[in-house]
Amino acid sequence: MILSVDEVRFSYGAVTVLDGITIGELDPGKITATIGPNAAGKTTLFKCIAGLLKPEGSIRLGGKDLRQHSREEITKKVSYLPQESPVNAVLTVFEAVLLARKHTLSWRVSDEDLRACAQILENLDIEDLSTRFLNELSGGQKQMVSIAQALVREPDVLLMDEPTSSLDLQRQLEVLDLIREVTAGRGIITLISLHDLNLAARYAAYFVVMDKGTVYASGEGHQVLTPEMLRDVYGVNATVLTSPDGILQVTPLGSVRKRGPRVDALV
Ligand SMILES: Nc1ncnc2c1ncn2[C@@H]1O[C@H](COP(=O)(O)OP(=O)(O)OP(=O)(O)O)[C@@H](O)[C@H]1O
Question: How large is the ipTM?
């Protein structure tokens, strides 16, 4: 599967949110991190790739423009994990994962579907939640179920918007280990939006840095995770060092912008 994004523009009403986004063909089997500050346009871009929004420009999936794919084809190929997943209170975890798998196919449930659901719950180490109702789960548990729903569909393109934002440290690593394994094992294209740049540095092979609806930079970690980028895009002074195991480590030192709550107004 090939995914490319060329000169994509999107506006909500009169406000342009994506202003000519171009991302060359992404490598299957590797994780690409989409990073950038709040409101940069990351979620909007994901929604365009998932076919939920109709932008100008071109998004090509498997050699064909997204507009030439039917809704069913896109849903079958692209799995999109939103930042906040809606929770249906009357479903158990197992039912919710099964429903996600059956989303685009026939409603007949095969043994293979049941096995795939059980397997993904086991892989994510949440099989003990199988019979619990979604509305009884903690924020992190709900996020784990959403991840199971995204993975169980076995997509060609996996879009995950802040998949680890509610997870504890161990779960963050376990989930991203699994996503990396699945991405490499199935040769799929995985785009993950992450605010934690150190997690992104650990797991992503390629970065797209978004700022104010444009691509500020793209490339490998050492090319884009620089003190200059962190100052320009995030407005922070930071050091970027390489750990003994070769992983980049970003340490923020302070904000260079005058914004946020005024301390003198609080005391
Ligand atoms: N449904 C909408 N209607 C109008 N404006 C929207 C809508 N959704 C998002 N926006 C605006 O589009 C811009 C980009 O939002 P988007 O959610 O794509 O950013 P993001 O990079 O994912 O941000 P964050 O890191 O905060 O999740 C923001 O200014 C936001 O207010």
Answer: 0.98
- In this prediction, residues 97-115 reach a mean pLDDT of 81
| CB within 8 Å of 133: residues ≥ 6 apart | 89, 90, 91, 92, 93
Strand-strand pairing, 3-12 and 56-61: antiparallel
From the CB of residue 168, how many other CB atoms can be counted at a distance below 10 Å? 10
Tell me the domain boundaries of the chain. Answer: 3-266
The label of the residue with tokens 């895009």 reads 233
Query: What does the pLDDT look like over 223-232, one tens digit per residue?
Result: 999 999 999 9
Q: Which atom of ligand 1 is nearest to the CA of 18?
A: 14
Best residue among 8, 17, 166 to mutate for probing ligand 1, ranked by most atoms within 8 Å of CB: 17
| Rounded-to-integer distance, Cα 205 and Cα 247, Å | 11
Q: Residue 187 corresponds to which amino acid? A: G
CATH 3.40.50.720 fits domain 3-266: no
- Per the structure block, which two tokens stand in for 248? 């980049």
Residue 39 CA to ligand 1 centre (angstroms): 5
pLDDT at residue number 71: 87
Closest ligand 1 atom number to CA of residue 195: 25
Residue 15 has which token pair? 């406000």
Rg (CA), the chain: 19
